[in-house]
Amino acid sequence: MKIIVLAGGLSPERNVSLSSGTKVCRALRARGHEAALVDLWMGTEQSLEELVAAPLELSAISREAPDLEQVKASRQGKGDGQFGPHVLELCKQVDAVFLALHGACGEDGRLQAALDLLGIPYTGSGYLGSAIAMDKDVTKRVVAPLGVRTPKWTVHRVTEDNLQALTESTELPCVVKPVDSGSSIGVSIAHTREELRTALDQAAQLGGRTVLEQYIAGREIQVGVLEDQALPSIEIIPKVGFYDYANKYQPGAAEDICPAPISEKCERELREITLKVFRALGLAVYSRADFIVTEEEVPYFLEINTLPGMTPTSLVPQEAAVVGIGYEELCERILMASLAIRGK
């Protein structure tokens, strides 16, 4: 099959996406597909044939998120749309688009809706499930009434006008995070008023809606889904701090244990919750749910990701490997299952 792997884009998770896309493209080529890597934002002047033959270089992910203004200014040609030069033309020439994007530019349903309108098959969940899952507040509003335990939360658009009041009134400790970003970008844990003020200052600078979430002490455990089946849980133990952007993508920054060393009862409960959320949001093919599990093995659902990372340190590929699914097979299964649900 001819496949475009879409990566990059104009997102704080751009570098993570390019790493995922490069690895996915390599895997699909190894399975005999004519796969080409394309940067959603930058676009390309090359033909499909040239892109399929182009070498792939996997670069390390820096500890800091990219400067998006610099990325934005570096695109050739005019226009503020998310599609770079010739991206859509290339997508129309192939059998499917493998979405290796992360963050709002590719994971929030807008891209999925555009591809649906153009009749272009793509991987993963559809536009509505993607949009719901990207919004941490809406996700919690959907699943909490179903009995899914989640930390208490409030949502605010932090401004200079309410910053001081939020600093004084918010119960501590708490987690401060953007409502619609991933890779732990912009996430802070505040134990003191000073730390909270700093976190809220950052939230105000980001300019978006912000979740103030009850802090739950415990272990960070995540559960992937592949084709409506929960994969084994994986525990992440950062060597310093919490599982933030740097610890996610720097080799050796965190220890991953799969299956997680938890009781059978807890493992079963985590898988059941993961599938309940997956199905309630109408997701498809694959995902990854994030939890905090207390010392008493009480799980708290945090969020679910519809396009989980596929980088060398990502978690879903590690979970799949435990049940005998290698990386190349995983990529092809995601591709074929996605085509099947879209009638291709």
Brief summary of the model shown:
This protein is of the alpha+beta class and 344 residues long.
Account of the protein in words:
With 344 residues, the chain is an alpha+beta fold. 38% of the residues lie in helices and 20% in strands. The protein folds into three domains: 2-124, Rossmann fold, CATH 3.40.50.20; 134-149 and 218-336, D-amino Acid Aminotransferase, Chain A, domain 1 (2-Layer Sandwich), CATH 3.30.470; 153-214, ATP-grasp fold, A domain (Dna Ligase, domain 1), CATH 3.30.1490.20. Strands 8, 9, 10, 11, 12 and 13 form a six-stranded antiparallel beta sheet that branches. Strands 4-7-5-6 form a four-stranded antiparallel beta sheet, covered by helices on one side. Strand 1, helix 1 and strand 2 form a beta-alpha-beta unit. Helix 1 (14-30) crosses helix 14. The radius of gyration is 20 Å and the shape is globular. The termini are close together.
**Poorly predicted residue ranges:** 242-250
- Report how far apart the termini are: 12 Å
Number of domains: 3
* β-strand number: 13
DSSP strand (E) fraction?
15-25%
Helix percentage: 25-40%
CATH architecture descriptor name of the largest domain: 2-Layer Sandwich
The CATH topology of the largest domain corresponds to D-amino Acid Aminotransferase, Chain A, domain 1
Secondary structure class reads alpha+beta
Using only CA atoms, what is the Rg? 20 Å
Element-by-element helix/strand order: EHEHHHEHHHHEHEEHEEEEHEHEEHH
Could you give me the name of the CATH homologous superfamily of the largest domain? ATP-grasp fold, B domain
Query: How confident is the prediction overall: mean pLDDT?
Result: 90
CATH class value of the largest domain? Alpha Beta
What's the story with the biggest beta sheet?
A: 6 strands, antiparallel
Gross geometry: globular
Q: What's the number of helices? A: 14
